[in-house]
């Protein structure tokens, strides 16, 4: 658990702190960023705010616990808190921890160490935009390749696959806009931010796939009924479909990796669409071969199958993104939250834990029970400590609302 203390608030702990750290600094003007284990302080960082910077005066972790990432956790606590306070840099003159700070990213500057630009660029936005732009360019290339190859190679299945790639261009543009707008800061009208736009874009993409699939199947079925399918595809069309398979496979891997790393539901949905495109291009190759070796009707049948696969993926995307919009609860995640609070705080009764997901961010609300004779001040401090700890140890948690109940005798 993590907690920030003023000197007056930490007075009762002074004897213990001097015992674990003989060089403990009594500073009435500083803030003590503490990490606790079962209500015992095991490490701290003494920090002073100077204009828009933090001065890290001392940092200490109890002996025997220094190689369990506790120092890194404390420093991360200071950095994250600094971001919330619009701190520009953290400065440290303590040479005893020079090597540790350098590993974290501190640089030597004018005889001291400093970590600047802690208001870092949102890596999630940068990576997401890069992936989507790459997807747009590649899908334009594949759409032109397959539609042109399908027309000159007399393959309706390849043309259908090309139209699918063209629809991917539209969905990728929608995702790009979603990434941009979803990362606009919260405002008075949208206090929870704009991240849900990603899920809305994911839903729109799913609907777009359904419409595309319907038109492809409809056209192929009409052609099948008419019986006008005498043209036999050429062998060169197999090459275009094979190129599409390879490109789409690597697009799927790339999008899924970044989508999972950044927890972007729209990007994950787009990755799944690229995966279905790999199968559809494989089906196109089989259909073309059967059309050449047996009958041109197989080219039409495969184009229908491609349409059905696109339709299925569209339904899957809509269901998945709708669960986020409808705030479906993640029981496993909620259980982790309950266990974390009960293990790391004096609270042993956590209940009514609910989550609301918006993009990659999670908003939590929960109830805790405290002794009925606990003062409002202490209950408030306890709740603040739980909130700070959850936000720090669970990267995707953006905010926590805690209601305090009293224990019934």
**In the residues, how many domains can be counted?**
3
Q: Work out the number of β strands.
A: 10
Instruction: Tell me the strand order in the biggest sheet.
Output: 1-2-3-4-5-7-6
> Portion of residues in helices?
55-70%
Q: Can you tell me the CATH architecture of the largest domain?
A: Up-down Bundle
Q: What's the CATH first level of the largest domain?
A: Mainly Alpha
Terminal residue distance: 27 Å
Tertiary shape: elongated
Question: TL;DR?
Answer:
The strands form 2 sheets. This protein has a 7-stranded mixed sheet. A 3-stranded mixed sheet has the order 8-9-10. The chain is built from 11 helices and 10 strands. The chain has helices at 14-20, 70-84, 98-104, 123-152, 156-182, 197-226, 236-262, 265-293, 297-325, 331-344, 376-393; strands at 2-6, 31-37, 40-50, 53-61, 89-92, 107-109, 112-116, 350-358, 361-370, 397-406.
Write the layout of secondary structure elements.
Elements lengths: L1 E5 L7 H7 L10 E7 L2 E11 L2 E9 L8 H15 L4 E4 L5 H7 L2 E3 L2 E5 L6 H30 L3 H27 L14 H30 L9 H27 L2 H29 L3 H29 L5 H14 L5 E9 L2 E10 L5 H18 L3 E10 L3
Parallel strand pairs: 4-5, 9-10
Antiparallel strand pairs: 1-2, 2-3, 3-4, 5-7, 6-7, 8-9
Helix pairs in contact: 4-5, 4-7, 5-6, 5-8, 5-9, 6-8, 6-9, 7-8, 8-9
